[in-house]
């Protein structure tokens, strides 16, 4: 299967990282409240980062690697030119 690693910008400007085989289904689950517990106190915003081409094992390792990054490093990853979704993030004031 083709696993994907993704990052969602949340309503509180935090970044949620996850993995899936079907990004549209997973985003719908998050939006409906049937996704991760992380969204109980915040609302999922938009998808801002997506890596394709992983198997289950490499997606899990990459997810953990991203989750261990400091917030500034995650924002740099999202803004990198290799990210074809969105190359800008709102800046924190």
Pairing-aware structural class of the strands and helices?
A: alpha+beta
Q: What's the mean pLDDT score?
A: 88
Largest sheet: 3 strands, antiparallel
N-end to C-end Cα span? 41 Å
- Name of the top-level CATH class: Alpha Beta
Structural account:
It is a single chain. This protein is an alpha+beta fold and 93 residues long. It has a single domain (3-79), classed as GIY-YIG endonuclease (3-Layer(aba) Sandwich), CATH 3.40.1440.10. The protein is built from three helices and three strands. It has helices at residues 23-32, 56-67, 71-79; strands at 3-10, 15-20, 44-54. Strands 2-1-3 form a three-stranded antiparallel beta sheet, with helices on both faces. A hairpin with a 4-residue loop joins β1 and β2 (15-20). The chain is globular. The termini are far apart.
